[in-house]
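Re: zinc ion structure - here you go.
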Amino acid sequence: MEVEPTCPMCGLHPEDTMHALVSCVYARAVRSHTTLPSFSPPYAEFPLWFEGVLTNFSSDNIMLAAAVLYHKWRARNRAVWEAALPSPRAVATAATATLQAWRLVHASSPQGHPHSTGTLRLVHGHYIAAFNSHPRACLSFLH
Ligand SMILES: [Zn+2]
């Protein structure tokens, strides 16, 4: 299937990662329904923008930014594959709920891993998700 290079959310600009997740009017509308601060330095590339988030945001806002980015990407994929775009408010609500659920699971462990953190790091041009905590809501051979 051929993928149209125009942004599936606004239909106005060529789609790249920075546009889809940060600068698109739809992406900005989603962010405006969250408690995240506006963060629009003059970076043309998403990796630099995300490094700026990791450097300038509080840990709570980094976690929220990751949830918001994930849900923006899901919304973008719905636009591409289902020709349906959820409202920016619905995407922001889903991101906030995802983060709250994640925090509940990680705060209620009887084992206690108080220093769990999550991050995405850029390594040789690729993002690698990393957490320093065991998944508490499941049993694993890795514990
Ligand atoms: Zn757009």
